Amino acid sequence: MSETAPPSGQPLSVGKFRLIASLGQGGMADVYLAVASGVGGFNKLQVLKRLRPDRAEEQGIVEMFLDEARLAAQLNHPNVVSTLEVCEDGQDFFMVMEYLDGAPFNRMLSKAKNTPAPPGVLLKVIAEALMGLHYAHELNNYDGKPLNIVHRDVSPHNVFVTFDGHTKVLDFGIAKAASHMVQTAAGMVKGKISYMSPEQVRLEPVDRRADVFAMGLVLAEALSGKRFWEGMPDLEILDQLNSGNIERLDEVRKLIPAGQLTKIVEKSLASSPADRYPTALAMCADIEDYLRSSKIRVTSEDISKYMHQLFGEKRAQMRKLIERQIAKLREETDGPVSVDSRAPISLRSGLPRIGLEMTVKIDKSALLGETDANTTAAPLSNETRSMVASQTVPDMRTPRSLSFYAILAAGCIAAGIGTFVILGHRQNGQTPNVQATQPQGETPKPGAVPPGETKPAAVPTQAPSAAPVLPAASASAAPAQAMMELQITAVPQTATIFVDGARIPTNPWTGKVPMDGMGHRVHAEARGFKSAGEIVLFSKDTSITLQLAPLSGGAAPVAPTDTAKPPSPGQRTLDDTNPY
What we know:
It is built from twelve helices and 20 strands. By secondary structure, the protein is an alpha+beta fold. Strands 1, 2, 3, 4, 5, 6 and 11 form a seven-stranded mixed β-sheet that branches.
């Protein structure tokens, strides 16, 4: 592990917090390891998630950030990460989260391939995670009304195991509560593709049973020793989920010991929510019943011992890294800094999700992507980095493609293993990143408004450094991005074309769009016809034709030979009844 001395300079402060390391950056917030100073010289390590100043001025961003904080602040359970407070210091808004000592479950599963876990340890971790989820699902608002929280992003990366042998569920940043004040854009799918439920893919309403399905995938992976969808292209994953015919389950079933555990996996992974466990608690009860009937007793001490066996060396490296930063802080302050001796050493809570992540934009979805970035703590090995990462900095990720659902991928830094996350927000009035060009030989009509051209969002990057660096108040200029040509034709010619929910002024249409590798929803609507659409991957020059079927029989429309008159530009409205 590299241990280059951090650059000198006065440590930065936010309110009562002294920042000692930058843990990550996201499109909305930056995350730091900080020392909280109190009376009597008491100091304690905590994780600080700070809203970026350049985003704070945008309409709705502060409300969105505080909305997440309000939800997180209501979660108070031993198996859920804690948000301690929400603060405002001048123009700074930040959340303070507990600092966890341990590693994400995906790293435990990876290590378990070479260092098998004692009997029941992995099952006990999953059972505790289910308890945390059930608590969130059952949570009521302060007025006694159910919040109806659905995590929507359950995965081994969001299950954290501490060195004292306890489990916590992380990353409720994209969880949906019925009482949320700030609505995310309609049609935006949220969750990791590899842990998404069929109803999420089909854009059907979701409830707690979507989280049960995700935990079923986690259980299957823990029992089989391999990723559930391992080796399968993302498009095939989405096709199986969309159809409800999960053929991969037959293959995974062969790797799981026959009996009660197989039945638990099968029930939790039922394609129809009605056939699954009704609650996370019910699934947990069956796992606990299996452990009892098998006479397997697992304590927190057993889990702790296994954690030290797997990560003890990396924990010591992380402790050394943090102690160096504390020593530097001590030298640059007037008084001594004595960090609480019980403070954990490895970081997870409150960090930005860093990994292969995606945004899937479906019909009537929004286009507000927030970019993820690399962890910027002092130089670490990839494996050590995986112990320093992640909770939600609500940011957007990247997809790949599919003929009817899509994925975009960005580099995995903190998790060491690929992660998929789907997340996204959009402010009213934003349009896709498209650069309009008229079809050959066409003259723009007076008053026609081509799609607005906007610069693609830049992915913030920062050289690894042990010292935290707060971002400048103004956003840096977006780097140049490769463009591709997109040609869209809709039949009949009276159809109106939409890209990511924004109306395109001509049919057919040819334009330049950023080659961002993302899947974008292209659909068309026409009076008297069923709408048609597909996900288009912006990775190379593409030409598509959307054929709309008549609503009531009749002859199929003929492809247009001339361009249609551009419809009046319009702005779609958000469908607040859509659960996404």
